[in-house]
Specification:
8 strands, two-stranded parallel sheet, alpha/beta, about 15% strand, six-stranded parallel beta sheet
Length: about 240
Amino acid sequence: MHPAREWPVKGMERAIVIGSSGGIGGAVADRLDATGVAVRRLARSAGTIDLTDRASIAAAADAAAGDAPYDLILVASGLLHGEGLAPEKSLHDLDAQRLLHSFAVNAVGPALVARHFVPLLPKHGRGVFACLSARVGSISDNRSGGWYGYRASKAALNMLIKTIAIEVQRSRPDMICVALHPGTVDTGLSKPFQRGVPAEKLFTPDFSAERLLAVLDELTPEDSGNCFAWDGARVAP
């Protein structure tokens, strides 16, 4: 594993972490906070934002506007399983409502966050909008099938990130808009699916957070629109 590093991203002063009650989002917020970054933490469980409710997203952005501009906006929310929802193993398992719910949380929600929160990034100078994605969202890397809703919603997220990046480059040429693959992290999201994962490939939330911030630190506007893994490798679309 890469050695840990202790610094904020590119001299960051202010950041917003959406999904800060989750394992990865919380670890990113904690690491930034420990380095002196002023972090606004937003989470559904805290009643501050709900990615399935556009009005909630707009209200959260309005509440944050007074401290703008922010150097980083990270969407760390995601949905893989839960009450009445599990990764589909075959076509027989497909259900319209569950598919729509996966898309609502994993793709539509982050896109609406971009709509309302990108204006809080600097108009000039470096600003980062990033969303947690997953390697299983890579269409070309899909060799095992299954997990229809999660795969497709993350693939949709990656396309949305690409499209957002193209548009914002026209008005914010220094902005970086990327998707991030955090690896397999020991959180509630991955807990039911950790069997068979080698110990060295099951990351702690803090290690994944450190690596994601390290990756962001190295990116330039030319990297905008792509998906990058925890080790800095570009994930194929």
